[in-house]
Amino acid sequence: MKNRILVKDLAGKLGESVVIAGWLNTLRDMKNFGFAIVRDRTGLAQVVVDVAQLEQLKGLQLETVVKVTGVIKEKKSKDPSIKEVEMQAETLEILSPVVDVVPVEISKPELDVQLDTLIDNRVITLRHPKQRAIFRVQAALVHGYRQYMEAQGFTEIFFPILAGAASEGGAEFFKVDYYGREATLSQSAQLYKQITMGVYEGVYGLSYSFRAEKFATSRHLTEFNQFEFELGFVDDMDEVMQHAEDSIRAMMATVERGCADELALLNVTLPPLGEKFPRITLKAALEAYRDEGGVDETSEPDLSPAGERWLSTVWAPKHFGSGFVFVTDYPTVKRPFYAKRDPNDQSNTITFDLIGFGSEIISGGMRINRYDEQVQALKEKGLNPADFEDYLTMHKFGIPPEGGFGMGLQRLTQNVLGLANIKEATIFPRDVQRLRP
Ligand code: ATP
Ligand code: MG
Known about the structure:
Elements: E1 17-29, E2 33-40, E3 43-50, H1 51-58, E4 65-74, E5 85-96, H2 115-120, H3 122-125, H4 129-151, E6 155-156, E7 162-163, E8 175-178, E9 181-185, H5 190-196, E10 202-210, E11 223-232, H6 237-258, H7 260-266, E12 279-281, H8 282-291, H9 305-320, E13 324-328, E14 341-342, E15 345-349, E16 351-356, E17 359-367, H10 371-380, H11 389-396, E18 402-408, H12 409-417
Parallel strand pairs: 3-5, 6-10, 12-13
Antiparallel strand pairs: 1-2, 1-4, 2-3, 4-5, 7-9, 8-9, 10-11, 11-18, 13-16, 14-15, 16-17, 17-18
Helix pairs in contact: 4-6, 4-7, 4-12, 8-9, 10-11
The chain binds adenosine-5'-triphosphate (ATP) and magnesium ion.
């Protein structure tokens, strides 16, 4: 909009007549005049209106889109050290009227609604400054990731969502009617990432994954995004983990630089990063949880959600000043068919998870790159190699030693901001019950 000034820039316009535009956030009747609070994407502006303008605004619903021209003045404040400005309205224009009652009050500092109400009324609740802030932080995380990967000289790949068969052979996938044939929604970009190892050596991208389990946890969605990464000519998994760590450091720095206001509004301190993210084998992690955390899960094949929380919010901060911790050496039975086995122990894989301030945010590791090894691994998993034609075709034609990872975008946002439910970190979440809005 021509000549429009954003609310955040009004302080620099003292004494000038300017145009602002936004939503009518609140209206206060002070008898001989009124205060209209106008919200734009950068903040709230106090607009002083005269009786006639007040009457005009009173006939409107909150959230009406308005354009106001007026002079910027210093706001009278009880505390003279606080310098704030307000606008004395000259003209008012309605750009878009509201035609129904706004279902949720969003002018209070806290929304204070149940999760379902929050999501059901996304059209309105997303406008609350705290909700807006969450997805500004999320966008900064994505930006930081892209910048990091681009600076490494890696290539961004766009992965397909429609697939012919379940990508990891699991049963929990969504079926789609595809011209009378059965298609599935992608569970993972794994196959495609690995195929690109025959060309680009280093790739990244933001993929969509769909999981059809009937989840009822605070960490699972049926549709989510993953930061993908895959790197060729790797002889040591450390190299892959280092990129995971460095990309997270870059993402946090981007959020810190660009989202100071959002973090303050959300009252969030980012998780500690420490000098280096600690690395611990699954076995040692389970033993630490038993010995220091007092919970014995050493007979389990994996850490429980409570164990992951303890390891990343108690153990790692205490010993390493870090809210992130790599757990390595997962048993072969717990990892997919493409996971590289430990040459000294076939029951162990060269894989890792990164637990990030509450729960798993990354799974990664070295991949099987040779044809014979992959055929053998499929058979040992009880899978039929004939069902994995695309995987095996790639392996026939020279894939270098390689590894990579997938990092959940919404999971990372949830943990970084300390949100109780992953749906709060998802702008339009999909779950077992929900396909709208
Ligand atoms: P989990 O054990 O937490 O259920 P997973 O090991 O089944 O996850 P992966 O296939 O390893 O999931 O996916 C890689 C990353 O994607 C996970 O580390 C997590 O951050 C994210 N992720 C996985 N499943 C979901 C989901 N259902 N909803 C949201 N994010 C998910
Ligand atoms: Mg995983």
